[in-house]
Amino acid sequence: MMEMFIYETRQFLEELEQLALASEQSQSFSEDDVNEIFRAMHTIKGSAAMMMLDEISKLAHSVEDIFFYIREKHPQKVDTSTITDLVLNAVDFMRQETDELDGGGGANASSKELRDKTESFLREMKISNGDDPDEDLRKYKKSPSAQPSPSEEKKPQQYYISAKPEKKQPENLHVYKAVLHFEEGCEMEEVRSYAVINNLKESTDELFYKPEKLLEDDHAAESIRKDGLQMWFTSELDHQTVEDALNTTIFMKKLELKELGSVSECEYWPSVQQQAVDAAETSAPIVPKVPQAEHKVKQPAHHEAQQMISVKVSKLDRLMDLVGELVIAEAMVTQNPDLNGLELHNFQKAARQLHKIDNELQDSVMSIRMVPLEGTFRKMNRIVRDMTKTLGKKARLVLQGEDTEVDKNIIEHIGDPLMHIVRNSMDHGIEMPEERAACGKQETGTVTISAENAGGEVVIRVSDDGAGIDKEKVLAKARENHLFTKPESELTDQEIYSFIFAPGFSTNKEVTQYSGRGVGMDVVVKNIEKLGGKVVVDSTPGEGSVTTLRIPLTLAIIEGMSLSVGDSTYTIPINSIKESFKPDIGSVFKDPDGSEMIMVRGECYPVVRLSHLYHKTDAIEDIDKGIMVLAESGQRIMGIFADKLIGVQEIVVKPIPKYIQEVSHTKGITGCTLLGDGSISLIIDAASLEKEIFL
């Protein structure tokens, strides 16, 4: 139950954050947005109360009150910005508490300060719109945001549904029968029914339902799927109000609500069970007329619930591991050394069919793991919004290509790099409104995040139309930190700009909330390099800067070029290779430091001999008898010298065990893979190899 609560609450919080930000940007809350925010808060309130998370429930309740007032009263004066602040603060609190629960801790923080602000704002909004601030909104609930009395606070909170409540039948009491059906595939119907009952009991006098034992009966979920959640209850609320309350139920497919003449018409009521009549069963059920705004929201959700299924990430990881093992097994069969020299036409035909099926299976599993960047991109809206308020700047975020998909493991690691890049653009790039106006620019700056597929990579660009990077400031800080690896006069603009990624590098003299410590952009490079990606930054003074991330679409199975060095085999990922060729004797020479360099079409690149780096004594030494592979890392290119090329094949990346890393020289190595003959090939990491040369 807790796992389901955490999952659904996180989904609601993401939705709430985006709805609030979009409403603030348009300076109004549309009817659909109000209904959607109200529904989300109402559901979180009920779910949190069911899980005994009182602080989350109370906070959701207080925010819900604001949108109930907006929905019912349609006030003329609505402070969109302040309401957005209240919603976002509540979202932050609930997200932090949910993360604590997910980590095995307890949700112990108090939401009283946030509730007080929310309730105070609602009171002021009522007064400014000429409404009674102390009006009891009985139409919705009997005791809105009521604080417990001192005597109640001392007693432990209990959550239960009374099986035999005290009988009370005033004259204006209505008798209802309701049957609620959930969407197919929503799962945990008994828990969802428990939440419905828990919410409904607040506004009912007597309540009975089937199945009776929702959480104890193992067959309750099956019964609800077949016959629905059946409820008989009495309430002072009118038909429409009850219908509206039940319509907020998440994953509800259909509601049948009927008002009966008396409890004697209820076929399931303790006092009249023996006198049940058939009229209630044979009468046509009343299907509620859902308001248009809610209908538009619910329709896609119903369609998706029938077409999609939620699967645990651990199961996908296991499936991916099995596909990787299958790829290795296929290579071990089709490339078995025992087959060398044999003409096996039928075997080759079967092997090609097996390879085709393996590829299709691999593509299918990969597509299951692919996740759109939209969610990660939209989180940046919050950063831009918060920084504009804190720094007094004006800026907007533009998203392009957010439907581009990448592997789920990659999407988990690019959130922090994107956050730091956007912060850098806002803090260092976008100017103050008066500065922009003086330069002939619009007062509102623009930060653009775009994504596109390029071969086996996804290219993400973060650009801004700010002042650009001050090259002289960067050079001065680089001199101070002794970052030059070659004469200053030989540095290109991109090499100068890349200094901002150095650890501890910052051009800010004072430490602020967002910059000055020199850790942000360093995190970008470290995280992206872990993914096998590259980071490039470019800038035009007065016009802005662009940071480009190139990341592989997936990390699990990649294409690699295998090289032999003596009796060992090494593999370089294809996306790191620019070209390979046999070098001439005169093309390789030594620089004044004694390091080998190679000249290719007028450009000079450093040379790494794998035999020297990994101490292979049986490798080829003559430059014209081996093979040179030009590998790219960021803005730098190096020549990797090996004995010969073996060929291209799909490789499953396996990590090198820690105990081997501790006792062996594994610099420049990112992992290993199994080859078709059962031997192990070490995977060369161009970024790590570059550090061996240049640092």
Task: Give an overview in words.
The protein is an alpha+beta fold and 695 residues long. The protein has five domains: 2-142, HPT domain (Four Helix Bundle (Hemerythrin (Met), subunit A), Up-down Bundle); 150-283, Alpha-Beta Plaits (2-Layer Sandwich); 313-368; 371-552, Heat Shock Protein 90 (2-Layer Sandwich); 557-693, CheA-289, Domain 4 (OB fold (Dihydrolipoamide Acetyltransferase, E2P)). The protein has 23 helices and 22 strands. The strands form five sheets. The protein has a six-stranded mixed β-sheet. A five-stranded mixed β-sheet has the order 6-8-9-11-10. The chain starts with a helix and ends with a helix.
Task: Describe the secondary-structure layout.
Blueprint: H1 2-26, H2 31-50, H3 54-73, H4 80-102, H5 112-128, H6 150-154, E1 174-182, H7 189-200, E2 206-210, H8 220-227, E3 229-235, H9 239-246, E4 252-260, H10 279-282, H11 292-307, H12 313-334, H13 345-369, E5 370-372, H14 374-391, E6 395-400, E7 405-407, H15 408-411, H16 415-429, H17 433-438, E8 445-454, E9 457-464, H18 471-480, H19 493-497, H20 520-530, E10 534-540, E11 544-552, E12 557-565, E13 568-573, E14 577-581, E15 588-590, E16 596-600, E17 603-609, H21 610-613, E18 627-633, E19 636-642, E20 644-652, H22 658-663, E21 669-674, E22 680-684, H23 686-694
Parallel strand pairs: 6-8, 13-22, 17-19
Antiparallel strand pairs: 1-3, 1-4, 2-3, 5-7, 8-9, 9-11, 10-11, 12-13, 12-20, 14-18, 15-16, 16-17, 18-19, 21-22
Helix pairs in contact: 1-2, 1-4, 1-14, 2-3, 2-7, 2-11, 3-4, 3-5, 4-5, 12-13, 14-16, 16-20
